[in-house]
Amino acid sequence: MMAGGVADLSEGGRAERFKSLALPYLDDVYTLARYLTRSASDADDAVQECYLRAFRHFDTFRGGPIKPWLMAILRNVCHAAYAGNARLVFTADAGEPPAEPVWQAGADTPEQALLRRHESDTMRRLIGELPAEFREVIVLREINDLSYRDIATVIEAPIGTVMSRLARARGLLRDAWIAAEGEGKRR
Amino acid sequence: MNCDEAGILMHALIDGELDAGHARELETHIATCPSCAARLREFHELRKMMTPGSLRLTAPAELRARIEGKLPKPAAGVSSRRAMIKGFAGGAALSAIAASGLLMMVTRRDDDRRVLGEVVSAHLRSLQAQHLIDVQSSDQHTVKPWFNGRLDVAPPVADLTAQGFTLLGGRLDYVDAKPVAAIVYRRRVHIINLFCAPAPGAGDRAAAMESLHGFNVRRWRENGLSLWAVSDINADELAEFGEKFEAAMKQ
To answer: Which of B125, B132, B186, B246 is the 20 to 30 Å CA partner of A62?
Structure first.
């Protein structure tokens, strides 16, 4: 028993515990990063920094669900990384040109181009084009499946703000969807 | 309640976050307000198009390996000890193992636990992401050769359909930052991932059942391969799977 206790206090034991708790959410964190940064390479860097930072501050994690804690760190990493570029990525300026689309990992093959017309691809694109403050609540709610309370923790805002932003985000998304469908029919 | 309030609260209703009192008020309003009723329907429709599976993305395996590589290695000293053992060639390795037998007993347990966490993570990942299968086939003679050139070992692939475990296919995955074979089976609606990694020189080890985060894991080692079967089916059925698989391998 004593050996186990000592091992748990070691750096390795800490890393082991961290990995078993945090790594199952890698895809969640990565998904949020892709939607926030709208770039595959930036998302990679942000996720790596998020996990290393989370591990450094693992002592401050007070139990409970780890997913919102990781999401909050990722969001801070993205904010810090893009501080000089904040207008482009994180403000709600309407009409800003979308950065690299969320789904674009490389050149499209003909099959991928076909698939791209699929509903979910349109939806990914439309979410990617939402202003940042609405995009993040939609992704946290619909894709990462966080509760309002957890979203409030992640974005450091009251639950009332979460509700009003979600309402606005879904309104924008609905309008964009209807517009995209119209375009599809005209083509 | 007016339409502005309803316009916000209907989202909390959709998300199952509205308390009973407000939900009743909202329903009363919607019953008498066709435009709010229409909006609520639209948002329900919108929601249906946002099934998480289609919008989620999968972290690249390289990213996972990179992060794991940058975190401290579990149980400080294991890696150097491992390196030392690897450093002894041939017969010398035997005496080294005998000499460090006690240490191995201690560190192996830590290692096992860590790897157990990793196979469960890999299992979870395969279910969450749309990356359950690289080669889709119920034919073992299609799945097995697919791994040629992708791995250092030829993983055993058995068709257990007759025994109630349907072969779905295989995929390349990563455990312990090393590529492994994942052979995917289905039992009713449950997925079983059978992970298979080379364990050169290691002796056979009888099967042991463990559970982690609500998943059962049956691990064993034979013919220089470490195997982990991971699933959310109950332990008895997973044990049955393991036994059927082992039996099929011996044929």
So the answer is: B125
